[in-house]
Prior knowledge:
The complex is a heterodimer of chains A (310) and B (283). In chain A, 30% of the residues lie in helices and 44% in strands. Chain A has 310 residues and is of the alpha+beta class. Chain A has one domain (4-80, 104-302). The two termini of chain B are 30 Å apart. In chain B, the strands form three sheets. Chain B has a seven-stranded mixed beta sheet with strand order 3-2-6-7-9-10-11. In chain B, strands 1, 12, 13, 14 and 15 form a five-stranded antiparallel beta sheet that branches. The longest helix of chain B is centred in the middle third of the chain and has 19 residues, at 127-145. The radius of gyration of chain B is 25 Å and the shape is elongated.
Amino acid sequence: MADLTIAVSEAVCAKTLEVVVANFGFEAADRASFGSFMAGYDGRLVLKGGSLDLRDDDTVRLRELDARWDKLQFTLGVAIPELSLGGGVVDLPSGTIHLPGVTLFTGDPAAVVTVDLAPFVKHELSLVASPLIQHFDPATTAIGKHCQDLHAALDIDDTKPQWRVFCDPQTIDFDLFDFADTVGDLFEEAFTDAIDKLLPHDPLHDIILAAIGSVADLLRTLLDIPDDISEWLSDLFNVSFGVFNLILQFVADFFGKCISFFQLDDPYPMFPKTVEKGVELPDVTIPLEHLTATVSDVELVVTADIGAVS
Amino acid sequence: MAFTNHSGLFAAVHENAINTTIGHLMRQRPSLFNYATLIFTQALSSQFCMPIAPPPGGGPLFTVEPQLPVLGAPQPLGLDWCLQLSSVSIDLYPGRTLTLPPELDPIGSQQFALHLQACFGLACPDDRVVENLAAEMEAVVAARVLGVAVPTADVQPVPSANVLCSCLDLFGVGHFEWGAVGGIPGKFLKTRLDNLEIVDLVTNPPSNLESMLECYLRVVLRLGVLPRLIVPMQSLVLNITKMLQDNDTSIGQHVTLVLATDVPNNPAVEDDELKVFFNLKVD
């Protein structure tokens, strides 16, 4: 029996995913000038849906996590030199007349076009991964050069022994353009707008909207069948299908085994340093041994032992 | 059977882990377990009842305490002493780690047993030193009787190179329970002492000394120590939202880990483990 045991049920894992999905938000905006041209983008990414299954083969399966853009605006602008037409002063015997004039292309840049691609760009991620635990010892654990560079860039401390928990991806299915959801959403929005304009808000209106929603869901399901088959095959053969997914798998393998999402110092500082009666007492550390993580279809179990007193 | 049959999250600590952690604490912070007068840093450093290994990370060997006063002395005199907790260990139900005295064995369901070995050492002065000091004390008394002003003095140590030691093994049995604390809303986790026994305190002829000591320790534990260990239920709620905020991540939901209420015992003391059951709550 292990010294320490922590178990997390599948329901808590699923609830945790819901919390992450509800609170995740990624915003990016930038603008750059290239002489007479400028380009910019402004986007906000949110997550929707997704489900998490724990499985008997020590893996966790994330299914169909949607990434949606609340806005995804691309802007292009052209700078045109200012052009003044008319104007000037005419001297007459009866006095001076100021002629009307107009200045064109005063904006900066003069002509701007912004398109919002949010309704057309939707992503979906499915993956199978397993927790991978490694004891990192600066003296003996080898890290590749690229991983070392990444650690240096991210200020990851590689000077002390640690237990590191990685997410080791087995298969990845990432749809850069989630065709099924994009078509389904466009269909639903178009028909909902039309019904809103045609019918007053009464029970019939609501029934028709519900029907449109069901049809849209059916459409999404039908259009998603090829992707579902692809995910199923990936899972069956434990390999990512498609060139893009293979590249992604390669990248994820690198990051999955280079960047840990959780780490524990070993020995672990159990009681922090303190000062008592003016005397500084150093922190009390305990060595951690045999840190393991196992996944069954009902729970994720993490166990560890505490090393003996030396 | 799955660990999480009765709750969303389960955590357990084996008694070996508790005892090993206590061992690390004793090794690295011995001043929590050893108390002595200042002279034990110098002349009496080799006279501890149990030798203390220097902690690997540095730090004091013991907590410095004042000398034991010589009651009634006309000038303040102090005897040097040391008190060492040389062994502290815990045994959780069903209890196979400790060999309990017959009075406590076996422990019942949901109970835990505690073993403390404490050694007390007294620096006992020899007769010559006492005679010399007695002459000083007589001189002080004589001066006072004759009305001569005697300046007040600091505590004068009674020198000694000989430390007499005596060790006691103390066993206790207790359990955890939830209950109210008068006038304060909410539930509190309380540590209760069920029984206590001192082993091998041999007196000749047999007397009430052991019972008196046990009675005193029982009262000290029940009234002086255990009330300080009560834990309000709300402090056992882990506020995940705040923990994330402390790590510069804010979320719009209130996420907490709360103690599960639909398990018969929480915390549970069973299978040589201390088990705690939590549920995830999202508001």
